[in-house]
Amino acid sequence: MLRPLLLAIVGLLFAIGPVSARELNIRVFQINDHLLGFYDGRPAQESRRSQSSNWMDSSALDVGVATYVIHRGDEALVYDSYPSTQEAKWVRDYLTRAGIRHFTLVNSHWHLDHVGGNAIYADVDRVATEKTIRRLMSEKAAIESGTEWGPPAINPLVVPNIGIATDTARLVGNIRVELRPVNIHSEDGLVIYLPDDRILLAGDTLEDTVTFVSEPEGIEGHYKNLKKMKLWNIRRILPNHGNPDVISRGGYETTLIDATMGYLRKLVMRAHDPDYLSGTLEDYVDDSVERGWVSIWWAYRQAHETNLKRVAKVLQGHSLPELPE
Question: Residue 286 needs a FRET pair 20 to 30 A away by CA distance; which of 90, 124, 183, 261 works?
């Protein structure tokens, strides 16, 4: 079994270089006997790592980044590769020392904080939706030069080599894994459902405190697809950006979907309000916070302000779509 071996090497991994877990602040969560979570970032506001506002710090590590590994025997499926190759190498080294020899990488979508470490898995199969592959290929030069989202550049960018367009089942040992393309957050999304555990690895389709509205023109479709997701017989949800305390305890209940739908609905329904752009994060999520569905995290205030601007730009002068509760 992998668990005793993983626990035995934690101390060793914290001691080795050149990039140690202490410097990266990676935490390892054992969700069950075949599912691990790796978590980096989410510093307290007063102790954030630098004054940098680059995408890796402000858009990823300030909110916290999780990746997940499904494993059995000497096989592992890695869900997303972290923003950087240093983090991805730390995870692969951890697993290799635990006896993993055969890897598959799955990318949840094209955003840079999910593919930055892909080069560490250049020698194995890398799976994503066909839309993710097309988007990464079209933006490859800009990503590698650091002009897509700004610095830091991802160079080389290693693009997935296996594309899917429909629900696809795989096995990791005897663990059934369902890869499900979804148009939530971004049109190229790919989530993982573990039917025996009823666990959803959600990528960026769900977040705590709030979702990033990266494609505001698709917000109505995202909302409707979240309603469909509610019917998936999910017991626990593990997002790529969330509260590490909740993730370490096994993840969120399906009320995280309700919280996300409620937030999107308010973004749309209030879009014509004259004071729309001044609405605070608390104005939009206090009800979900009071219910214990999500928690306030400081780095999401900027994300919320950006969401308001993006939605206002798309819906200004247009009829508001109906988003039934």
Answer: 183
Classify residue 187 as left (phi > 0), alpha (psi -120 to 50) or beta.
alpha
Q: For Cα atoms 229, 225, 30, give the angle at the middle one, nearest 5 degrees.
A: 40
Q: What is the pLDDT of residues 56-69, one digit of tens each?
A: 988 899 999 999 99
Contact 178, 169 (CB under 8 A): yes
Give the integer Cα–Cα distance in Å for 140 and 134. Answer: 10
Number of residues in the chain: 325
Spatial distance between the Cα atoms of 300 and 266, rounded to a whole number of angstroms: 16
pLDDT band at 3 (very low <50, low <70, confident <90, very high): very low
Q: Residue 40: what are its φ and ψ, rounded to 5°? A: -130, 150
Q: Which amino acid is at 107?
A: N
What are the tens digits of pLDDT across the range 111-130?
999 999 999 999 999 999 99
Distance CA 195, CA 197 (A): 5
Domain boundaries, the chain: 2-315
Would strands 199-207 and 162-164 be described as parallel, antiparallel, or unpaired?
Answer: unpaired
8 A C-beta contact, residue 61 and residue 40: yes
| Pairwise CA distance, residues 243 & 151, whole Å | 26
- Residue 209: name the closest of 283, 314, 310 by CA: 283
Task: Confirm if 28 and 10 have CB atoms less than 8 A apart.
Answer: yes
DSSP E strand boundaries for the chain: 27-32, 35-40, 65-72, 75-79, 102-106, 125-129, 162-164, 168-172, 175-184, 186-194, 199-207, 236-241
CATH topology of domain 2-315: Metallo-beta-lactamase; Chain A (3.60.15)
Instruction: Give pTM, 2 decimals.
Output: 0.92
Sequence-separated (6 or more) residues with CB below 8 Å from residue 273? 279
* Rounded Cα distance, 228 and 312, in Å: 26
